Amino acid sequence: MWDVGLAQMFKERENKINIGPCVGKIVGVKPLKVSILDGQVILQEGHLYICQSLAKREYKLELNADGDIGDIAITSKPSNPLISFNISEKEKTKLTLYFELKQGDEVLIIPAENQQVFFIVDKIQKSS
């Protein structure tokens, strides 16, 4: 049986395949689950890090109308109400955008060197 032992030693010595940057698909939101490698691997929340800019982005916002500050109104779909807010202090005004991952979204996944944790960098879409 020395030949089986020798073959096993060669197999153990083979370089393991490293996962590089890849496309992941959101398959669960609460808790977060991401499928990679055509569904062969499901990454759980404990193995995932999300880039802060994907979750929340803040911008300093300044609205000028002939040197004055004023109102901003945002109209969205007919089913959603009109959103309006007043800017009264330029220095304290900021706009915060929150993003959400939805089931079916595709994301760019980059593994850490040890391939035990993975970083969700951004939502992506295939170009048309």
From TrEMBL:
It holds the Pfam family DUF2577. It comes from the Bacteria. InterPro entries: DUF2577. This is DUF2577 domain-containing protein. The lineage of its organism: Bacteria, Bacillati, Bacillota, Tissierellia, Tissierellales.
